[in-house]
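Consider the tokenized backbone below.
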């Protein structure tokens, strides 16, 4: 299933969870200059892994900022406010795998 945010142009392709698994897989395409905006913390523990396939992605977790480039991987627990910004000149593509405790 693919969703495209008309305001930002960000496209998210969601892959269904396998069986009763609490694992979510998403491929994200962010146009140049786009941002997820501030995302609220998850109420339950939600671990997230991402791999940047293309571009330069800025990940902000609370007060900490990380700039990731093609081939970089990142892990975080989404228990603080967070956001994703495309800070490079072109498109950003990344794959994310999230594991929640439901």
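A designed sequence for it:
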């Amino acid at each position: 299933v693919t969703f495209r945010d008309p305001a930002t142009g960000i496209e998210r392709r969601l892959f269904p969870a396998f069986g009763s698994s609490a694992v979510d897989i998403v491929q994200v395409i962010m146009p140049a200059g786009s941002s997820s905006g501030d995302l609220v913390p998850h109420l339950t523990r939600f671990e997230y892994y991402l791999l940047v396939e293309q571009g330069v992605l800025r990940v902000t977790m609370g007060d900490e900022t990380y700039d990731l480039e093609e081939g970089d991987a990142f892990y975080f627990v989404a228990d603080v406010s967070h956001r994703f910004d495309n800070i490079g000149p072109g498109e950003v593509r990344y794959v994310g795998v999230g594991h929640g405790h439901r």
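The chain is about 0% helix and 55% strand.
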